[in-house]
Amino acid sequence: MRLKLVLVFIAIIIVLGGCQMPNKNPSTQTEGEQEELKPADMDDEDLPDVRAFKDEFTRGFLQSTEETRPGYYPFSSATGAYKMDFPAEGKIGEKSYNIKNKSYEGVSIGVGNEQSDITHTIKVKYYNHLSDELKESRLGQMESNIGMDLEFEEKTSENQTLYLAPYQHAEEEYNKDIYGFAALILNEKKLGGIQIIYTSHCANNCGELKEMDMKQAQEWLKSVSFLEGLKDSDGNAR
Fold it and tell me: How far apart are the first and last CA of the chain?
């Protein structure tokens, strides 16, 4: 009899313990529990039906399924150095992605598809050592990459300084209108900078769409900002 009571007692403990185990299935979790999950940890059926979440590599950089604004989701760099809005139809090129400790990160984003009137290529490079003294060399590098001289306008805020220059290639050289901007963002509180080349490839209705496209691109640029608590390549606070 005593043995039977012991076995019953053990069985009750096992059942109660199983009931208290955390629920990892997003479809049966409460709303609060689901908010704690990053998109990379969620089931496909619980993700927004957009290109950014369909690509596993891209999904690893996205912080939430909640939009920051219509058509964009929160992105955080793997260095932990900066954040930005990520386009719903964007995809990060895994083969071209490059990171070196916390000192450098290169991200190339393709936005749109073959049916889009306008597609975009966004190249973002972060350097943790970048300072005002190295500014001119980075601006010159972007001119070299684009293949033309650029006129940069300087805009300074409390936390960062932006150097921005629009550009457009001669239309007769291409089958598409190709235009965009180059931007360099310097952190005014710590060392570090972000280099951006944003290129639009317009195939159809360019006269109607180009002005609005550039406005949207520059609105996106406002979302790029440095994160607090940066560390250098040795892991030391800066």
Answer: 69
Contact of 228 with 82, CB cutoff 8 Å: no
Q: What is the pLDDT along the chain (238 residues), one digit of tens a residue?
A: 454 544 444 444 444 444 443 444 434 444 444 456 899 999 999 999 999 999 999 999 999 999 999 999 999 999 999 999 999 999 999 999 999 988 999 999 999 987 889 999 999 999 999 988 899 999 999 999 999 999 999 999 888 999 999 999 866 555 678 999 999 999 998 999 999 999 999 988 888 899 999 999 999 999 999 996 444 444 444 4
Q: What is the CA radius of gyration of the chain?
A: 24
Put simply, whether the predicted model's pTM sits higher than 0.85 gets the answer no
Contact in structure between 124 and 196 (CB atoms under 8 Å): yes
Contact 68, 83 (CB under 8 A): no
What residue type is 99 in one-letter code? I
Q: Which amino acid is at 70?
A: P
